[in-house]
TrEMBL record:
Record InterPro entries: GBBH-like_N, GBBH-like_N_sf
Entry keyword set: Iron, Metal-binding
The protein, known as: DUF971 domain-containing protein
Top-rank taxon, per record: Bacteria
Residue ranges occupied by any Gamma-butyrobetaine hydroxylase-like N-terminal domain in the UniProt entry: 7-90
Origin species: Microbulbifer salipaludis
Keyword Iron belongs to the record: yes
Length: 126
């Protein structure tokens, strides 16, 4: 997969804009953070991934090329170990309408939330 023709970081909007020949996508920092390709998030094997919570306010400090094949994103929560290949970035663009609701459903099922300043309390037996 080819890299985007343009990559723009909008810190105020907490989003990354990727311009391809055929389309333009705006990916929020929170979406990119919870779908980080890092071992910390994905795990080291099949099915070992971690459900990332509380990233509603996360931003992106900067981005940098990782060779000619990927982008490294430096998030303002200190996470910077994910290397987003051009193929994976395009996958995130093309599947956002499926991935984002699936993520929200996983959070809800786990009793977790997007906002780090809120917590969910579940009452048992009443």
């Amino acid at each position: 997969m080819s890299p985007p023709q343009k990559i723009r970081l909008n810190k105020a909007e907490k989003a990354l804009t990727l311009e391809y020949k055929d389309a333009e996508f705006v990916l929020p920092a929170e979406y990119l953070r919870v779908y980080s390709p890092s071992a910390e998030v994905r795990g080291h094997g099949i099915g070992e991934g971690t459900l990332v919570e509380g990233k509603l306010h996360v931003g992106i400090d900067r981005v940098a090329a990782a060779g000619r094949y990927a982008l490294q994103i430096f998030f303002d929560d200190g996470h910077d170990s994910g290397i987003y290949t051009w193929d994976y970035l395009r996958e995130l663009c093309d599947t956002r309408d499926e991935k984002w609701p699936a993520y929200l459903a996983r959070l809800e099922a786990a009793g977790k939330g997007r906002d780090p300043d809120e917590s969910t309390v579940k009452f048992i037996g009443g």
